Amino acid sequence: MKRIFLVVLDSVGIGELPDAKEYNDEASHTLYAVSKSEYFNMSNMERLGLFNIKGVEEKFPGMESKEMFEGSIARLAEKSKGKDTTTGHWEIAGVISKMPFPTYPNGFPKDIISEFEKRTGRKALCNLPYSGTEVILEYGRQHIETGALIVYTSADSVFQIAAHEDIVPLKELYRYCEIAREILRDEHGVGRVIARPFVGSYPDYKRTSNRHDYSLAPPLTMLDQLVDAGLDVLGVGKIYDIFAGKGVTDTVRTNNNKEGIEKLIERMERDFTGLCFVNLVDFDMVYGHRNDVDGYAKALTYFDDQLPRILNALKDEDLLLITADHGCDPSTPSTDHSREYVPMVAYGKKIKKGNNLGTRESFADIAATVLEYFEIKQQVAGESFLKDILVK
């Protein structure tokens, strides 16, 4: 029974890519920035080899001295254009995006907003890039008084709709998102339409866990190939949303990293053959975008503290792959994602120890490796490193 557990530490980048200047992300290094917090401790990931990865070892002198770390490691470059969640996850799954998804630094065009208002029967407020917590503080009262929807974006390719759950029932808010998804196609095909429900009274509004993402459907991915081969693909967190449900046979949403880790461990106790694909989003959503270095550090330390439970649950044929989808350096003035390399840490009884693959050209190498492990002829991008990490 072969199983792969692929865990994405959302936004845990490990240093600027060569083209970071084009994205205004020079000198970004999410992991290093977070390590400066007194709350940072990743001794278990250190044991697996995280701090021996190229671009990490130079920032953490001394920590890379453990030559016989227990995993196989690599630094992965992003080949796609962009630095958002959808682009990163799609590339992990074997899709290289040659064009970035559209962004709207000045808000969405009038014709888009007019069509949205016409089809929903509600006016739109804001229509500007905004922090999710600040936008409800700024427009929440007007929304409650008028019933108009708070529409906003960010530096990412997103169309976000915020609404108070007492004013707009969730089912209705989700329907509005489906309408927006239908409108936002072709040149305006944003990566995600996101429902952002909130509760509370001014000024103590609070976003709820009932967020829902509506992504564009991706082309063929490794997930589709796995399912077509009769294997299971278990999604944990927002994986189902990111891939618009394509190639996912079983899914569970999570409210936070803690719940995501627990759902992962529950699935490790199941008998299945295939992939369990996990996104732990708190690093990005709760801490990275809010420039909360200490909060980010605590979240990484929590993951590291729980890692032995994950390692102990691995069976003989299991592979664990830990990676990320982009950066989100919380120490920079920007609250946006950052264009960074990401780590790849592989562990399991069949994985070589003390094995450093250097820098790989694409996140998609993960997809190729997964498919080769299950002996599926690859139809997506990427170069497999399976033979380089398996014990002969």
Main-sheet strand order equals: 10-9-11-1-12-13-2-14
Q: Total helix count?
A: 13
Structural class: alpha/beta
Residues in helix, %: 25-40%
- Summed up, the domain count is 2
- The averaged pLDDT comes out at 96
Number of E-type strands: 14
Note down, in words, how this protein is organized.
The chain is of the alpha/beta class and 392 residues long. The protein has two domains: 3-99 and 217-389, Alkaline Phosphatase, subunit A (3-Layer(aba) Sandwich); 110-215, Alpha-Beta Plaits, CATH 3.30.70. 31% of the residues lie in helices and 20% in strands. The protein has 13 helices and 14 strands. It has an eight-stranded mixed beta sheet with strand order 10-9-11-1-12-13-2-14. Strands 3, 4, 5, 6, 7 and 8 form a six-stranded mixed beta sheet that branches. The protein is globular, with a radius of gyration of 21 Å. The mean pLDDT is 96.
Summarize the structure.
The chain is an alpha/beta fold and 392 residues long. The protein is 31% helix and 20% strand.
Secondary structure layout plus pairing:
Layout: E1 3-9, H1 30-35, H2 43-48, E2 72-76, H3 85-92, H4 110-120, E3 124-129, H5 132-146, E4 149-153, E5 158-164, H6 170-183, E6 192-199, E7 206-207, E8 212-215, H7 222-228, E9 232-236, H8 239-242, E10 250-252, H9 257-268, E11 274-280, H10 282-288, H11 293-312, E12 318-323, E13 342-347, E14 355-360, H12 365-373, H13 386-389
Parallel strand pairs: 1-11, 1-12, 2-14, 3-4, 5-6, 9-10, 9-11
Antiparallel strand pairs: 2-13, 4-5, 6-7, 6-8, 12-13
